[in-house]
Amino acid sequence: MEVDYTTTGSKAVVVLSGGLDSTVLAYFMRNAGMYTHAVSFDYGQRHVKELTLAAVTCKKLGMKHTIVNLTDLKPVLESALTDPRMNIPEGHYAADNMKATVVPNRNAIMLAIAYGVAVSDHAVMVGTAVHAGDHFIYPDCRPGFINALQVAFALGNEGFQEPALELYTPFIGLSKADIVRIGAAANVPFADTWSCYVGGSIHCGACGTCCERYEAFALAGVSDPTYYRADPREYLTKV
Amino acid sequence: MEVDYTTTGSKAVVVLSGGLDSTVLAYFMRNAGMYTHAVSFDYGQRHVKELTLAAVTCKKLGMKHTIVNLTDLKPVLESALTDPRMNIPEGHYAADNMKATVVPNRNAIMLAIAYGVAVSDHAVMVGTAVHAGDHFIYPDCRPGFINALQVAFALGNEGFQEPALELYTPFIGLSKADIVRIGAAANVPFADTWSCYVGGSIHCGACGTCCERYEAFALAGVSDPTYYRADPREYLTKV
Q: Which residues span the domain enclosing A128?
């Protein structure tokens, strides 16, 4: 990067999972001139490979990166994402069985920590890549929740936020296909992002997030660099 | 304990620091017949001794105990409680210099995690021992914050809370002296609780929390079993 963001931009924190959405958001914020500190979480997710890719993105963008270890939560938060005894549902992402992938209060936990980091950093915003495609399954990705959390956090840090902090959600009304288009326009290296919930070293092509990823590239008309083990088209009609 | 709470009481989660207030709350909830799961946090606090005492309380009460390691946050959350280069202020607790002991968004972080655990446990409430004496210094102990957080968490877990969860704050309008009185009436072994923010193996007697502890016992007219290295009366007038 040619610009020295440490002296020019506003400070910001971004919640970076290493998935497609948050990686595009990291590029988006960086390109907007923000000096960004990325916070990632290891909560015992099977798809821990996403954290390696988050680190790759931070290195490429010259961003500070903090990975917070929350693996103590694995035995006490119930979810198919962390429990190897539960199956990751296959097929279309909007299907009701994807609810097994909810991690209780996950976004509240991540945003509470990222917000605390932002207060310490004297940052102006905390970016999170929640988008409209998440709303159906995940209540903690909906605008009402984000707005209420922002009110609570502002009250909980009254007198200690300098300047006032914003929960920044530029994708909240957009689809995943829209995010792919934004990423393509910004030359985001999509191969540096991970979506598959099953884990392993290549995308399975059958789980809900693989199907969602495949579909988003197709709808956006953007070339998908992902190698899928199975053909997502065979699973997209499965509900 | 003679009662088997695992089969009789409602399930509840309690945020237990090992300090005086939350230990009294744990006894209070247990005595009310709740089957309680205590959640404690290691965030790199100097006074990590409180966690040992939290474990003692859980063992005595036969409560499930989860200690969540958040020490990754120590370098990124700015506070005198975790940074050995900063001084813990001495003297009266309500003094303005106690603001150095604020950990940004601490209660939001702890309550977000405890709430997620409670959703997984199908519990009916999350207890936290915030009290009126905290309000002056800590914005994340005030009723407005707790109420706003409850609204946000309810929205963030819509459809996944069964039953609906309450943030339970029975001490929020009470003073620390009131809590000492409640604890004395319930025969809480106060020697199992820790207040000093400086760390070490005995209470320093000079820091704000030692002064506050000493004063609460005196105001309540309850015998204080604490051994203080220095006499808190010499520091109580210091602001």
A: 5-82+104-190
